[in-house]
Amino acid sequence: xxxxxxxxxxxxxxxxxxxxxxxxxxxxxxxxxxxxxxxxxxxxxxxxxxxxxxxxxxxxxxxxxxxxxxxxxxxxxxxxxxxxxxxxxxxxxxxxxxxxxxxxxxxxxxxxxxxxxxxxxxxxxxxxxxxxxxxxxxxxxxxxxxxxxxxxxxxxxxxxxxxxxxxxxxxxxxxxxxxxxxxxxxxxxxxxxxxxxxxxxxxxxxxxxxxxxxxxxxxxxxxxxxxxxxxxxxxxxxxxxxxxxxxxxxxxxxxxxxxxxxxxxxxxxxxxxxxxxxxxxxxxxxxxxxxxxxxxxxxxxxxxxxxxxxxxxxxxxxxxxxxxxxxxxxxxxxxxxxxxxxxxxxxxxxxxxxx
Amino acid sequence: xxxxxxxxxxxxxxxxxxxxxxxxxxxxxxxxxxxxxxxxxxxxxxxxxxxxxxxxxxxxxxxxxxxxxxxxxxxxxxxxxxxxxxxxxxxxxxxxxxxxxxxxxxxxxxxxxxxxxxxxxxxxxxxxxxxxxxxxxxxxxxxxxxxxxxxxxxxxxxxxxxxxxxxxxxxxxxxxxxxxxxxxxxxxxxxxxxxxxxxxxxxxxxxxxxxxxxxxxxxxxxxxxxxxxxxxxxxxxxxxxxxxxxxxxxxxxxxxxxxxxxxxxxxxxxxxxxxxxxxxxxxxxxxxxxxxxxxxxxxxxxxxxxxxxxxxxxxxxxxxxxxxxxxxxxxxxxxxxxxxxxxxxxxxxxxxxxx
Amino acid sequence: xxxxxxxxxxxxxxxxxxxxxxxxxxxxxxxxxxxxxxxxxxxxxxxxxxxxxxxxxxxxxxxxxxxxxxxxxxxxxxxxxxxxxxxxxxxxxxxxxxxxxxxxxxxxxxxxxxxxxxxxxxxxxxxxxxxxxxxxxxxxxxxxxxxxxxxxxxxxxxxxxxxxxxxxxxxxxxxxxxxxxxxxxxxxxxxxxxxxxxxxxxxxxxxxxxxxxxxxxxxxxxxxxxxxxxxxxxxxxxxxxxxxxxxxxxxxxxxxxxxxxxxxxxxxxxxxxxxxxxxxxxxxxxxxxxxxxxxxxxxxxxxxxxxxxxxxxxxxxxxxxxxxxxxxxxxxxxxxxxxxxxxxxxxxxxxxxxx
Amino acid sequence: xxxxxxxxxxxxxxxxxxxxxxxxxxxxxxxxxxxxxxxxxxxxxxxxxxxxxxxxxxxxxxxxxxxxxxxxxxxxxxxxxxxxxxxxxxxxxxxxxxxxxxxxxxxxxxxxxxxxxxxxxxxxxxxxxxxxxxxxxxxxxxxxxxxxxxxxxxxxxxxxxxxxxxxxxxxxxxxxxxxxxxxxxxxxxxxxxxxxxxxxxxxxxxxxxxxxxxxxxxxxxxxxxxxxxxxxxxxxxxxxxxxxxxxxxxxxxxxxxxxxxxxxxxxxxxxxxxxxxxxxxxxxxxxxxxxxxxxxxxxxxxxxxxxxxxxxxxxxxxxxxxxxxxxxxxxxxxxxxxxxxxxxxxxxxxxxxxx
Lengths: 355, 355, 355, 355
Known about the structure:
The structure is a homotetramer.
Chain A: E1 5-10, H1 14-26, E2 30-36, H2 40-49, E3 54-56, H3 59-65, E4 70-73, H4 80-89, E5 93-96, H5 104-116, E6 121-123, H6 131-141, E7 148-156, H7 163-166, H8 168-171, H9 174-177, H10 180-190, E8 194-202, H11 206-209, E9 219-226, E10 231-237, E11 245-252, E12 256-259, E13 267-270, E14 277-279, H12 285-288, H13 290-306, H14 314-333, E15 337-338, H15 339-343
Parallel strand pairs in A: 1-2, 1-4, 2-3, 4-5, 5-6, 7-10
Antiparallel strand pairs in A: 7-11, 8-9, 8-15, 9-10, 11-12
């Protein structure tokens, strides 16, 4: 049997819990040996729940006191660069949650830090490991629907994210926090990089939910022109309240393909003919992507065991960040924005500039 | 333009209204010129609603005072023989609702009365005109799923039928009033006559709904062995309360086919993630078989205009009645019953015998 | 019974045949008494098929030689203004196919011509009469999903339209010929007029199909900002080859609603487990909107009989044309365009200007 | 962390592989330390694939040479009694695949052997651990659809089982090998034991597939009357060729519930409008019940770790065997058979009697 991979989980919140549970319940080859969170209540609660003995307020302390092979970083976006660099410095492989970073300079630093030391870097785009998305991608790449012409991808999340994730200055906003998955997914499935993006946004629930950031929005459409000439549309709604909704529809020269549905389970009930048939909806993302979360962690563990490069890495994360920046710039300037505008090394993200 | 067909509608109740509405709204070539019902309130209500001028308490009076080409008989089963014979005597073509009659002797009388005079006789098995059933039948007969091995057909109706329709002495009960459609449908789609039938029944709601007939049942499974060797299952529930449900599933040597669904409309809503997705169910039979009712009446009108024999007639109605009788006998005797037992001319339906 | 409405059908092509068939088969209260088409072969073919006696090369001749109450105009967009004005001059009610006209001046002329004489004008937006769209609209307006925030509407058509319909100079292109229905539909369901529109297009099949017009495109996304603040996305693909596809998805503050599906019939077959389940798709628009075409024509007939204003008229047609113009301008100028730019009476459609 | 459970897998064939793979990939707390199979080629192939070191031709040898906590028995039905008794004698907990045994005497021996020594006995009815069946059961027991009146359960398997499994003398035939799951499932969901059963069978593919056992059948309907008065229908087809199909439909006094579907994945494709929409079907049982297989093994491992009685055990297995026997007797005698006939200790299964 291959050597078990020892992991330090950074962040004891929602995503940290999800990955800790996945490792404990479904991944015999991986073991969470250390948990890092500055909030001790959460550190202990998550540590207790998943029987993790090593608990530390900082990664530095964990590095100092425990031995492990890899880190899984689940903390807010603005911490990604610093944590990755510290882990890499100590020779740890890195599984990094999306969005990769705040801007392209940070992405470049992260890529350089891991590549220089020959460390693995996997991005948390779990859709790449979802059985439906994987099967669909194979069929698209196999030519079944012909050359892709048009794609729609949506992510609608039920609840309002935390304040830092709503404010474009601290997170680049919803297009980053919610729709990074779509930005990666459409580039992957279309086999082409985005060339131009146009963003329209709306704010319907912000005030009543206490979201007061200057450019807050809870609805968006991103229209993308790909380098291949194809078109993309990404839809984001958060909070949508009605469930967790992630679906893709793609039209090729020969046909159409739909990936995913809202239906959370094949159980249909009718107890009132004036109401009709009732079927469960996916309530939260861990339900929708249950297999995907297991498979992405198993993939990372196997890559660490075998020294294989992960299927989704820094370059993919960087393209998603570039799309986030171009989209946000489009919203602020009311015009379509070329990706090359934000890929220009001379350009500095104005909404992140310190005063 | 072909000559308009003049019709006398017998029965001003639910089915009489349905067919009158169909003719008025969707069948330019047919016209209801007379309406017959002994209950004058209902006669006038239905007559007013569909602007039918000729209104009569009896068919005899309608025949005496109006000119028409055909009758549509929508009255209780036990009246079918007498009404058909009277209509046929006056040279009228007959559209006869299901079940055809109370027993095989009545069926034979009806067939003879119309055949002798060269009159058309169409049975009200509207599934034979439903676009989905028609398309499915063509594909089955074309060999798409291979030789049929097994079929399931269900009809679950929302509300308790009237008292006469629940009492096997006056109607042969639910297998006749609700499941005649299935009995015809499985014989049609399997391309084989039934050989043996076994009926299990249950009574769950009778008492609370005031249905006190001796052999009342509101749930049944009829298991059929066809002459071809294939198997059939018919499910009946009435009152099921949850909607109107009519579906078929058939397995052939090469594959499976499903016909129909519960979903009444392609409108899906979710407004509560704990509840899930909601889709309309078919509430009543006129919704489910809206096209079928139009097409069966248009077919009858065209047959009358052109002198063509209808696609579904007396022989089909007779087989459904034979199956009803064998099924009921099976229930009463607790054993599988061969169709040849009830097809024997010497056999008299014991539950219909007058004391 | 109400007086039968006498109709002159203008255009003996695809749409003329559809409406003639609808009237002959399903609308007892309307009668096509005259058919107009300059191409005599088509005139006779369609006239024979639907048993229409009056056949004329021009509307002028039909007006001269026959008596009728109303016209149904199914000819190319650039003929709409002239035909409507001639019909109105002779006191005929008008059912006008979409798109209403080439530009807003023509729309205004059409509205004025009918309104001045108290004539009815119904636009051919059949989705307003589709049972699913009607039920959905009632539920949206009843508040079931809350205030609408975001809508997606798509129309993908199987085959390449005729050359005049692909050239923006003669038809305003695909957004007009294919997606006018969506433009009307989103405005109706959102209860708000469009404020700004951004169009991205792509051309994948033009060359191989022989479509050489300068601005030809076969894929498009129109992104709309409504006056209410809500967002819209319209997707157009033509020729898509895979079927006829028309669906809407709308998200309100309380939930989501989907209207329509690709599934053309509830018949599911599996005969090969490596291939999977097969279900019919809607092949063409007459299948998808079978009920809608019947109901819109019945509505027009009833409006003529009773002197009632149709549910969908000139104002609706005019808004769809305005959206078409703003969208096309957006595509040509590579920027979002405000509706007020094209609603400005001083603005002349540059791509329609004669040299 | 709880102590890892050491398991001896008995049988290296299809089911042995499935459970070995589940333990290796998804169950951190269980470990296959020994594999038993008399066929050395299969023993080594499966041993290699799942990296199992201990490999033995017999359970006796494995018991002699290795230490483990529990066995998983996946061999043919007629071996179950002997293997269970041997394992129990050595104090091993037992996970036993369905059908439990050939007859009720064997069931009683198995129950006695484990109970006497306080050993756990779990039956391989994985549907009890499928997320959809579990959720459905909770809702039924919670009263959502009211008192159950009628249930349909089907299992259609793609390929012909091995010869021993087709011959009622060596396996009790298809109702045992394929439909044991349904027999357990309907009893569980209806909350009532079967009282009477009637079996109709058909043989369509036997000859062409080389199945020549005397009472071979490849299609069956079992009609059940429950002690509660409710009705059940079980459908079996094997080989059905078209996929693996397992679904349940249940009607209660208040409504209907459907559990499961044929659709293997939410990926829909259309590339030919004359063919229609294509969706994956479940090809084999490991796909359909992927979660169920993981959860049933995790449940067994947890029960062993904690000394808890499994949710599904000997009593459940015994009722399924009793139903198998009553159904087979019904087929052979052409009449409904009461369960009490086969539960009578004096009754000996005639088709298993040695000559």
